[in-house]
Amino acid sequence: MRHRGRHRRRRRGRAVRAFLSGTALALTAAATLISASQATVTHDGPGRLKPLTATAEIGKLQLTEDVVPQASLNRLAAGMGRPVGVSAVLDEADRTLRDAIDCSPAERRALPVSPTATRAYCWNTDDTRGWQPGAVTTSGDADDDGVWGANQVILSGWSRSGGSTADHGLARVGFVNASDLNHLAYTWALLAVPVDGGRDYRGLVSHVSGMVWYQDKLLVTADDGDRAALYVYDMNRVQRATVAQDAVGRVPGGWSAHGYRFVLPAVASYELGGGSDAPRPATVSLDRSTVPDSLVAGEWTLDEGDRGARLWRYPFSTAPGHAGLLAAGPAGRVHASQAYETKLTDVRGVLSYGEQWYVTRGAGPRDRHGTLWRQSADVDRTDDKANGSGAAVCGAAETHSCWSSQTESLSYWEATGEVWTQSGRALFALPLGSIDRTTE
What we know:
By secondary structure, the chain is of the alpha+beta class. Residues 32-42 have low confidence and may be disordered. β8 (171-177) and β9 form a beta hairpin. The protein has helices spanning 2-31, 55-59, 70-80, 86-90, 105-108, 139-142, 432-438, and strands at 50-51, 63-67, 95-96, 98-99, 119-122, 131-138, 153-160, 171-177, 185-195, 200-203, 211-214, 217-221, 228-234, 239-240, 248-251, 254-257, 262-272, 283-287, 294-298, 310-315, 333-334, 338-341, 347-353, 356-361, 371-376, 389-391, 411-413, 418-423, 426-431. Helix content is 15%, strand content 34%.
């Protein structure tokens, strides 16, 4: 029976790949309906990234590390019970993502026209209604072999967009067991912040637009009204909720996590340190092509605004006892190691690898799809290949609006060469090489 099941999965995998090819053709045909007025950039592009070198500009990117006292974390664990790790969470994954072939036509329209997705899945409607999708990160970020323990894992961030005033904006993470890509099972964990010295916790109220799992830490973008730019979670410190209520925190009889079985309490945060006009990192990703590995960040700017977005990076620490955290100085300050400005506005996701940066823009008011631009950061290049930037072209109108409508993060799984992201209820992947080929 085991072999028969494996053969069924292989046949289904081939069917899904064939289906995705057909979906790509259909989306390409749909792209021909885009009017010429929407093909705003056909031959020109944003060009190369502009390096930011002024001390004042670089100083605005500074962060300050704030670690939750160990005594607070110990007090919380004493009240809730011994923390567990990722494998314990995956053992209770009781929901299943749908293959692309089972997605609705509306869900499949979130997929890019060019380059095309080679893997695609859809989240369940019943447990994502009233929630806004955000960032994606994987065990390919966590470890260079792409495996965490015995599992390959995808993490998907969501924030509460509906519901009551009390739970509006709550953030959660879907833990997806991706060891069998023909059967993705998942469960949820609530993101929280310890309060009152670890005697309680509150829910993180933030749109999870950026998220990176590096070593044993999960770094999540924050916009919940204070100076915190990033919250940090320990993947070995997942707590079990003991009461299944809508409430968050300590309740009569135990601990509640908005009905979920697991909760992640923050172990640290990084606060903005560059003054009132300091850019808040809205999207983040991991770059393993730098030494040391680095956290790439980008800000959001208004579409058709008066300036483009700033893109920058922070080095990860190599100091003992600082695994998964950014490289902070004696005073806890973290400085950007590189910074650039792109001419692009309405930036959503950003990824860097080698000398190439990949930047996504959301769909415009009249567009069905967004745009993914490749931009070079190599300012010393003298060849005349394009102009340092490129984007796929699709449809009879030769528009650059070929990408997914709303991808807020890009995660490169180096061991497989794939980029993972999500848009709407669609979670999908495609080779980085296909992005390079279509953006030449």
